[in-house]
Amino acid sequence: MMGQQPRAESLFYYFRLEDQISEDHLLRLIDRYVDFSFVRERLKNFYSSTGRPSIDPEVLLRLLLVGYLYGITSERRLLDEVRMHLAYRWFTRLGFEQEIPDHSTFSKNRHGRFRQSGVFREMFEEIVRRCLQAGLVEGRNLAVDGTLVGANASQQSRVAREQLAEVAQVSRTVQQYLAELEQQNPVADSEEPAPSGPVSTTDPDAAWTAAKSGPALLAYYDNYLIDTHSRVILAVEATPARFRQEMVAARRMLERVNKLGLHPECLGADKAYGSGEFLAWLLARNIQPHIPVIDRRHQTRGHFTRDQFRYEPSENAYYCPEEKPLRYRGLQRGSRGYAYCSTATQCQGCPQKKLCTPAAYRKLFVHWQEPARQIVRALAGTPAYVRSQRLRRKIEALFSELKQRLGLRRVRLRRLWNVAEQFFLAATVQNLKRLVRFLAHRESSPALSTA
Predict the structure, then answer these.
(1) Residue 166 falls inside a structural domain
(2) DSSP codes, 100-119
(3) Judging by beta carbons within 10 Å of its beta carbon (0-12, 13-18, 19+), is residue 45 exposed, middle or buried?
C-alpha cells in the first residue's frame, strides 16, 4: 500500500552538526586547512579589557566568507541562510543553542574595528602568504587587469562639482568627501589629473564611465594582479573607474608583491597598460613588459611615418626621406614628449611633400620614453611574449567567477574604502578555493607530496 509521511515534530533530536558535513564539502576543506585564529590576534587591541564579551570577530568574518563563497550579497539574507543551512552553521561555529547575530552587527564592526584595523586586507594577504608557503604560487609570470564593477549610485545622483559645498549642508557623505579632499596633499607632477566633472552625492568616489558594451554608469575598477601558473590573486586594488587608474593600481600591486618576496620576470597585460611611463617603470625593475605599446606612429593618414625619418643623435635632429632636417623645438609636457619640426622654406617645392604632410611644414612627435617603447616593441612576437599574452586571459576567468559565482556585478556598499573591503573579501574566497583544493589534492596524492 502507498505510504504517507505525516508532519510530526519531535521534542528532541539526537545528532551532531559535525556528522552532517561531508568530508569533501568546500567549507570542511577550508576549515581543515586554514586557521583563522589570527583574526582575533589582529583585532585584540580594538576591544576593551572590561565589560560584556562581544561576538567573536572570527565568527563575523566566517559569516562574511560564507556570503562571498556562495554569492549571498545581502547580509539580511545571509543570516537567514545561516539559520537554515547546517553547513553554514557548522563553519561559523553557531550551534542550534546559539543566537544568530543581527545584521546591524556587521555595519557596526565594519565602520569601527574592521576599518581601523585593516583586517580584510590582512586576511587577504595572509591567505596569499599561505599559498606561497604551500608552493602553489610560481611567481615568475604575472598578469594584471581591471574590470568594471557598478557602483551603488544612480546617474540622477550626480551634481556639478561646483555645487558640492551647497549639497554638503544636507549630506553627511558629501561633507566627509570634501573634508578628505582638503586633507589630501596634491602632487604637482602626478600622472593622474585631478578629477573633474559631475560628482555623485550618493557615492562621490565612484567615477562616471562608459562600459565596453552597454550604457555609461558610475563604477569602480577591481584590479587584480595574478600568478598565471596557479591563478592565485596576489594583489587587489580598488580604484575609481578613471583613465590611467589601472596603471596606478598596477604599480601599487607590484610594489606590494615585492614585499612578499616575489620578483616577477615578466608581466602580461592588454594595451591599456602600454604607456611609455609604465613600460619604463617595469624595465627599471627588471620586469619584461609583455604588453602592446600604445603607439600612434602610423596614424598619419597615408603620409610618411616616423620610421621613415632618420635620427641623427649628434645633432638631435631627424632627417626626412629627402634628407632635410627636422630640428628639436622643445618639450611638450601635455603630450609627454618632444617636438621636432622642419621649416616652411625647406618643405616648399619638395617633390615628396604630398606624401609627407598637407601642412606648410612637417612635425614629428617623439615620446620621452621612446627608448623603453622600442625595447618593448622588440619583445613583441617572441615566444615568451606570445605565451604571456595567452596566459593573461586567465584573469578574465577570475573576473567571470567574481561576477557570475560571487554575484559582485555591482557593489553593495559605498565609498572607496568600503568597496575595497568587498574586493578584498571576494579575492580572498577565490584564493581560498584554490588553496584548499590544491592542499586536498596533494594530500590525496602522496607521490606528488614526495616528488
Answers:
(1) yes
(2) PPPTHHHHHHIIIIIHHHTH
(3) exposed
The strand pair at 216-227 and 363-367 is best described as: unpaired
Query: How far apart, in whole angstroms, are the C-alpha atoms of residue 265 and residue 262?
Result: 10
pLDDT averaged per 10 residues in sequence order, the chain, 451 residues: 63 71 89 87 74 77 91 88 90 83 77 77 92 92 94 86 76 79 57 68 87 82 94 94 88 92 92 90 94 72 78 87 86 80 87 86 83 89 92 93 91 89 94 93 66 42
* Residue pair 220/240 in contact by the 8 Å Cβ criterion: yes
Residue 328: its H or E element: strand 325-332
Q: Which of 440, 442, 421 is nearest to 432 (CA)?
A: 440
Q: Can you name the residues that pair with 220 across neighbouring β-strands? A: 149, 240
pTM score = 0.85
Element spanning 235, H or E? strand 232-240
442 belongs to a structural domain: yes
Helical ranges in 348-444 per DSSP H: 353-356, 370-379, 383-391, 394-404, 416-444
pLDDT for position 188: 41
**Same-domain check for residues 239 and 93:** no
Who contacts 179 (Cβ-Cβ below 8 Å, separation ≥6)? none
Backbone angles phi, psi at 296, to 5 degrees: -120, 20
Distance CA 330, CA 311 (A): 16
Residue 252: name the closest of 281, 215, 218 by CA: 281
How far apart CA 187 and CA 183 sit, in angstroms, is 13
Identity of residue 365: F
If we measure between CA atoms, which residue out of 359, 358, 376 comes closest to residue 367?
376
Residues facing residue 226 across a β-bridge: 143, 233
Q: Is 31 in the same domain as 157?
A: no
Which of 53, 87, 117 is at the close of a domain?
A: 117
Asked whether residue 241 is assigned to any structural domain, the reply reads yes
163 and 286 both lie in a single domain = yes
Query: What's 136's DSSP letter?
Result: -
| Lookup: cell for 149 | 564593477
Asked if residue 11 belongs to a domain, the reply is no
Domains in the chain, number: 3
Q: How many CB atoms lie within 10 A of CB 300?
A: 14
CA distances from 97 to 89, 100, 334 (A): 11, 10, 66
Can you give the pLDDT at residue 215? Answer: 81
The pLDDT assigned to 140 comes to 92
The pLDDT assigned to 48 comes to 67
